[in-house]
Write a structure and sequence with these properties.
Blueprint lengths: L1 H19 L3 H14 L3 H13 L1 H29 L12 H4 L11 H16 L1 H20 L5 H29 L1
Helix pairs in contact: 2-7, 3-4, 4-6, 4-8, 6-7, 6-8
Length: 182
């Protein structure tokens, strides 16, 4: 029990400090990137650009990214948020302009982070340069979710784990299906 209490306290402390350590200008950039990722717009746009400019490799990367993103969204938002009803971090920890538009749904896990990580990690094996370019906004989205008061750090970590698992399944599922069912 002490370990869990220590983890909870560390999670709260990290989440609380995140907003106070970010200069206002950086916070605005992070918010703009997160807003573009809202509703997966950023990742769908990246997939369209990859499919348009990347030839076969770009189309393969785009499809893998979108499949992994969809799986991560279903797991994080469709399943986990329905099962785990964790309240958002307290509003008083964060600047008022950051907490005005945060969602009312469960805090655990971060669906934004799950989608960003899933898309990025699924794209990377098919087109490493595109994966590396997607990693920058994905990291910004993950950090912004804590900095804005929408999530605790463990929510973001769980979202990243869901994203990694979704990307791995997207990569491995075709082989597993062929091996076991055909």
């Amino acid at each position: 029990m002490r370990l869990l209490a220590g983890l909870r306290d560390a999670d709260r402390a990290l989440s609380r400090q995140a907003a106070s350590r970010v200069p206002p200008g950086v916070g605005k950039v992070l918010s703009a990137v997160e807003e573009s990722a809202e509703g997966t717009k950023l990742w769908c746009g990246a997939a369209a650009a990859m499919a348009w400019r990347g030839g076969w490799r770009g189309r393969k990367a785009a499809v893998r990214g979108l499949v992994a993103l969809t799986m991560a969204q279903l797991i994080s938002n469709g399943l986990c948020k329905q099962v785990v009803e964790r309240p958002r971090p307290p509003k008083e920890w964060f600047p008022p302009d950051e907490v005005e538009d945060r969602p009312d749904s469960s805090s655990f896990p971060s669906g934004h982070t799950a989608a960003a990580v899933a898309f990025t990690v699924a794209v990377a094996p098919a087109w490493p340069l595109a994966g590396a370019l997607c990693a920058v906004p994905a990291a910004m989205v993950a950090f912004e979710r804590v900095q804005s008061g929408a999530h605790y750090t463990t929510d973001v970590a769980a979202g990243a784990a869901i994203g990694l698992a979704s990307a791995w399944l997207t990569h491995r599922a075709p082989r597993l299906i062929l091996r076991h069912w055909l």
